[in-house]
Amino acid sequence: MRTISIVLGLLVLPFVLIGLTQSADWETQYVTFDDSDNGTGNRTSSVAVVGPNRFAGLVTRFSGDAIPDNMFAPHTNYLVGYWDADSAAGRVPSPINGSQGFPVYGEPGSFSDWEYLLEKVTLQGAWQLASDNNGFVYVANNDAAHNILVFQLTANGLVSTQYRMETGPEYIFAIEVDDSGYVYVVDYLGNDTKTNEVKIYAGIHAEGTTWGVIGAHNDAPVSTIDLPPGIYQGITVSGDGREVFISATSQRSIWKFVGTPTNGYSLDTSFAFTLSPDDTVAHGGHGTPSVLGLAYLNDPPLLFAAVDTFLSSGVSGGYPYGRLYVIDPDNGAPLDTIDIAAWNFARTGFYDTGSNNGRAGGFTSVYDVDVDPTEKAVYTQTYYGWAVEKWVFSGDLNVLNIEAISTQVPEGFQLRQNYPNPFNPITTIEFSIHRSDRVQLDIFNIMGQKVATLLNRRLAPGIYKVEFNASGLPSGVYFYQLTAGKYRQVKKMILSK
């Protein structure tokens, strides 16, 4: 306590107000209202983001509540577009048969059609969307040719383009597009009789492709990835296409492949993420949660995974469980958790109630996730809540590498002096925590203004070190503050350029 008092005595009042009271966490910025003109109108399985508050949702519903033997059989599928959205506004006309371009609320007979000149493909058996950098939305469709169908989202509506690609005889589920336009699509089932569970196609604007050629749409993949037997329900890639992450749903794992679309990929065995056997539905619920949709944020590099019980509804089913894991894409270490079920319950007092003035989706059933790199916001959906959710982080996602020096339980809480000090521009900060807690490490300037959050996540007991790069800051005196539960400690450091 003496150290803290001395350091705080050197600072102006704003530091005390900001540094000792401000915390960071995930929260919804908005959830589209369910039973309103701005709602998706039915069970929403996927979301694809084209820009801040601009996204498309995919509705996927069976004709009845019972789950059919074939989840890819023709059923309700349509797209819902949003432009400059919030909870109550933003929905734009979509390609829906017989409903003036808008979905009919609760109507099980609405379908989207992809149409270009004399060609027409009806959405059926589709579960997941993807988007690119140019406002295009891609659907992993399960018509007879298992087309990738491409639409475009504009302020005036969601419309068909001339682009589609036939992928072959297999049911497809997950889909993604990298920053160069390469399109990745994943078979729902893997087996030993095929070696192309993941197919990678040159982009819709690449030279020599048949995406927009009437009567063709039949390119060979530029490369493929062979997966072992299992169920696969998610894929994402780094912007440069060098890292591919796949949800091995039946194994409750994520696998990472490294390479390039043109030269192929190999498994990265240094990455490991598998749900714990203890990661189950609580509160008497049933169903086994697993890894579903995935998303990748390039800057800072973060992997987001939707984890839930697939097609398990009700308070005794999946509603008490549903979350997004934030994962280190280098090694698979969990960095943070967005507990959507807990958020909903805290706001409404129930697991099967939504709204809370557009802040809670309820009916937790998170099957997909996407990110907007501009705002670094995260978008997901609630399948049984019939809504799209936007999540934002109140702190700084630019978390630098944290390394566990020792997993031995230390005797207490301690923040050590950074080294080197003075430094230019990189220094290392070490600390110890003696019990599991959410740990936050913030940097402040001499005026008490927060200039960086290096860490904000739950950690196990141990000794850790974090690297701080101050290349964007001017020379001067700075203070770093570590908070873990009721413990708080502050130290001074000097940046000398």
Word description of this protein:
The protein has 497 residues and is mostly beta strands. The chain folds into two domains: 2-24 and 399-495, Immunoglobulin-like; 26-393, Neuraminidase (6 Propeller), CATH 2.120.10. The protein is built from three helices and 36 strands. The protein has helices at residues 2-9, 13-19, 340-348; strands at residues 26-31, 44-51, 54-61, 76-82, 91-92, 113-116, 119-122, 129-131, 136-140, 147-154, 157-166, 172-177, 183-187, 189-190, 198-201, 223-225, 230-237, 243-248, 253-260, 264-267, 273-274, 290-297, 302-308, 323-327, 334-339, 369-372, 377-382, 387-393, 402-406, 414-415, 426-433, 437-445, 450-459, 462-469, 476-484, 487-495. Strands 14, 17, 18, 19, 20 and 21 form a six-stranded antiparallel sheet that branches. It has a four-stranded antiparallel sheet with strand order 1-28-27-26, with no helix packed on it. It has a four-stranded antiparallel sheet with strand order 2-3-4-5, with no helix packed on it. A hairpin with a 4-residue loop joins strand 32 and strand 33. Mean pLDDT is 88; it is low at 1-23.
Strand content: 35-45%
User: What is the rounded Rg?
Assistant: 24 Å
Structural class of the secondary elements? mainly beta
Number of helices: 3
First-last Cα distance: 32 Å
Brief characterization of the structure:
With 497 residues, the chain is mainly β.
